[in-house]
Automatic annotation (TrEMBL), chain A:
InterPro entries: FecR, FecR_N, Ferrdict_sens_TM
Domain of life of the native organism: Bacteria
Name recorded for this polypeptide: Transmembrane sensor
Domain FecR N-terminal positions: 50-91
GO molecular function, one term: sigma factor antagonist activity
From TrEMBL, chain B:
Name of the protein in question: RNA polymerase sigma-70 factor, ECF subfamily
Domain RNA polymerase sigma factor 70 region 4 type intervals: 144-191
Polar residues: compositionally biased ranges: 202-224
Lineage: Bacteria, Pseudomonadati, Pseudomonadota, Gammaproteobacteria, Alteromonadales
Transmembrane feature ranges: none
Presence of the UniProt keyword Transcription regulation in the record: yes
Record flagged with keyword Transcription regulation: yes
Keyword list, A-Z: Sigma factor, Transcription, Transcription regulation
Amino acid sequence: MIHTKRNSSGNGLNNSNRSRVEDNNDRCTNHEICENSEYQKASISSSPQDRAREWLTYLYSGHTTATKRDEFVVWLNSSDENKQAFTRSQKVWQTIGMTDSAVEWMQQHAAQQPATVPKAKPTRVLAKSLMALSAMAASVALLVFNGVFNTTTHLTLPQPQTAFTSPVGQNRHITLSDGSDITLAGNSSILVAITDNERRITLRKGSAYFDVSHDPSRVFSVTAQQTQVRVRGTAFEVKYSPNNSLKISVQRGLVDVADLPETAEQREQVLQLRPNEQLHTDIQGRFISPITVFQPETEFAWLKQRLIYDNVPLKNVIMDINRYVKKPVIILDNSINELPITASFTFEQIEPMLDGLASAYPITLTHEATRSVLTEE
Amino acid sequence: MSKTLQKASLFFLNSHVKTQALEITSAASKPKTIQAPNAIDKLFKAHWRDVCRILHKCYGSGPPEPEDVAQEAFSRIAQMRDLEQIADPKAYIIKIAMNITLKSIGHLCKTRDFIAQHTQLPEDQCDDVCPETILQGEQRIAAIQKGTEQLTEKQRDILMRARIKGQTYSEISSDTGWSVADICRQLNAAMAILERIDEQENNPNDQAFSSHVSPSNISTEPKS
């Protein structure tokens, strides 16, 4: 087995106390154990299946290093027996997600979580301060997040952040204290932190256009998932697209797009975009498209309450439309997801546009009580 | 093109796109939805809110947003050929939604990519849950289900947090107060039990595996 260190906590302590004892005396993780000599001896006698299991749980632990991953590759390729053992562990791991036990656990887990919707109070104070409370809650959540997950070696004081959210159905314009203008597309959300040294934005969902005031002393950065866009004075858009990919489109100035490393040992990849250039990244920050040129009149039409598409997949069009309609539009047939759409309409024309879609394309539109459904004709 | 589009009040390129669109849809030879709309609609009305609630509680508000994930899950089940085969559609939808969400967790994506790259298994076979795989792997699922019922409460919680919630050891430790070392030990013990039962159920004549994960080997409590 992987665990070669043992403590002597079998003395009647309850679980939490025992955990604390272990925490102090037994800090062996897969990674650490792999590097000590006791483990080297133990691993000689362990079976390929034991090692496969240890590697699998290590890889999914969220604490891997490049060195250990290289060791895994060497181990895996050293024999067919190892490969078979790892495949067996992997299949078991995969199958756990298909069991009813997994669903039962999710339901129990959900029931144990504290309610997220605050109880209504019989006064109007709550309603009046709802926006302020939302911003405070977001800030507190971020402070907690930083406190728990910040693993740097020096103390950094988290900056207070303010949340801005736009409603479904309309854009929202915001002017920041540094003079930068932001336009949020419908149903979008950002966090903003502005200090003497930096201007930091986090795009939480949707799409946002930034017209950044020039300030050489303070970088203006927009982070979404593992992608960060850095500028000093320019105009650009960052937008969530289907499959959690991101689209960065530059209208003016120069923009650096960085693939943020998840660990200290990884190097940051940076690409520079010029005006009218566009780039797509995936959820992990990887650049998944070459830099392409786009039509700013089409791309930024939403700033003038219009949506324009020139051979754009239907799923992208519907994702945009859903920022501006109260009743969501759903595609129920994957076969029409990639249908190329060419259309131009204002926000107010979305309903007739949907009806027009059904007559212009091989699709059927069904209006239900809570949603509109698109299916293949 | 763009200039025309900007000026148009409501504009489609019908004749041009219609042909192209038909080519696309005919090329996509995916199974056509054959479910009665009423059946899907009933499922939607009965379970939509609860599925969204469970996703929200387990994975937070996103991205991806629970509503988007639930919609995708309902969409996938709507495209299934035989809805009647599913004993518990709600559980089915939750399993699919869970898998969709897990595909959006960064460290899991990297691990899946890494494993797929080095085991030369297609990525979707590494860690995918779809209606087809659920139906095809019934025997293995039954074995693993049986295995999970034999785990201690703590082992099951850690296993599910790692596998179903996609938490790292640090996150599990932060939520539960258990040490990272203990979490590592319990997770390996739980997996050993599941692997042993999977082997027994699917290959009962092979005793070699079973001997490696005898009860003494998978003890989870620290020995004094």
